[in-house]
Amino acid sequence: MKQFEDFRKLDKLQKERQNKIIKTSILGIVGNSLLALFKVIIGMGANSIAILVDAVNNLSDALSSVITIIGTNLAGKDPDKDHPFGYGRIEYLSAMVISVIILYVGISSLVESGKKIINPTNPSYNYITIVVVILSVLVKLVIAYYFNKVGKDVDSDALINSGQDSKLDSFVSLSILLAAGLYVWFGLSLEAYLGAIISIIIIKSAIDMLSKTISQLLGEKIDPKLAKEVIATVEKFPGVEGASALVLNNYGLNDWNGSIDIGVPDDYTAEQLDEIIRDIQLEIYYRYRIELTAVGVYPINASNREIINAKDEIKEIISSHEYIIGLHGLYVDEIDKEIRFDVIISLDAKDRLKVLKDVVTDVKNHFPDYNIEAFPNIDYTDK
């Protein structure tokens, strides 16, 4: 019964996360829509392209929050026959759409600012304009802080992206405030150039966010800290004499599955192995929300001193080769005359199969009476 209670608790936490994202996004929609409305009115009255560009940017932020809500709802759908791993990656797609919208706004604003530079017109800033811009800066800073805080709490890239964009908007509004002050007090009009600078900043921000999201969709390396924690947790189980080859696949924020290999004494029974594997799978799921769909098992030579010494020699031979950054699953079968192992070959190697072939040849030269079975692995946390 405790197992089912734990599953319900995890589901409850996931729903709470979705509700937080939706509530935060609704606040963003209201706040940014009001800011956009006021800035359109003030910008048209002041004939200011910079304020109008900023208004359009605020409107895009409101639209981004709408997309975040839609993406969160879709990502929360239960797995089905067509999508057995669920819909979690839709959150990445929503973050990508937000980035594209911001990019479009930046490019459009740059075009309009360019027109104003070629055919300049004087704005008509006044003290009301300055007050509205000051309020805009304060509101945007509050939105940025809140979005970033909630985004980190619930691990939502969409919210974090929106928070970063809001923080950037506050600096944009500050620059508009500076331009307005220069015009009111010194009669110096820089707002067309300021609009162009703002547009370039928006474009740069959008490209950075888009690049990050695309990288996540393509599949990034495992967080080294998480990998070490998972491996350390597995190695604490009685009977486990080493864990390696951790592979994690991400199907949405906080939705992982993968596999790991463990080494156990070669005299363990199938019943003992089954108990260890089940305990590992449950512990890793409860602690890290990672579903280990496969746990590979390597036998460990535990008693024969002569074989243990031979294994030490084999390790030295293998580690002497360039691009070899790890070794696991080394087993010497004295009866069938086989030496089996997996080698982790660096991604820096131009020809990984050649590296493997050289390693196998070298081991074979030192142990000619044995058949060598080797498999190349990748360290998915390799920097």
Fold blueprint:
Elements: H1 2-46, H2 49-75, H3 90-118, H4 127-154, H5 157-186, H6 191-218, H7 224-235, E1 243-250, E2 256-265, H8 270-288, E3 290-300, H9 305-319, E4 324-333, E5 338-345, H10 352-366, E6 371-377
Parallel strand pairs: 2-3, 5-6
Antiparallel strand pairs: 1-2, 4-5
Helix pairs in contact: 1-2, 1-4, 2-3, 2-5, 2-6, 3-5, 3-6, 4-5, 5-6
Helix content: 55-70%
Structural class given helices, strands, pairing? alpha/beta
The radius of gyration over CA amounts to 29 Å
Unreliable segments (pLDDT under 50, ≥5 consecutive)? none
CATH superfamily of the largest domain: Cation efflux protein transmembrane domain
Proportion of strand residues: 5-15%
Number of strands: 6
Reported CATH architecture of the largest domain: Up-down Bundle
Provide the domain count: 2
* Widest β-sheet, arrangement of strands: 1-2-3
Architecture overview:
- This protein has helices spanning 2-46, 49-75, 90-118, 127-154, 157-186, 191-218, 224-235, 270-288, 305-319, 352-366, and strands at 243-250, 256-265, 290-300, 324-333, 338-345, 371-377.
- The chain has 383 residues and is of the alpha/beta class.
- The protein folds into 2 domains: 2-218, Cation efflux protein transmembrane domain (Alpha-lytic protease prodomain-like); 224-377, Alpha-Beta Plaits (2-Layer Sandwich), CATH 3.30.70.1350.
- Strands 1-2-3 form a 3-stranded mixed beta sheet, covered by helices on one side. Strands 4-5-6 form a 3-stranded mixed beta sheet, with helices on one face.
- The longest helix has 45 residues, at 2-46.
- The two termini are 42 Å apart.
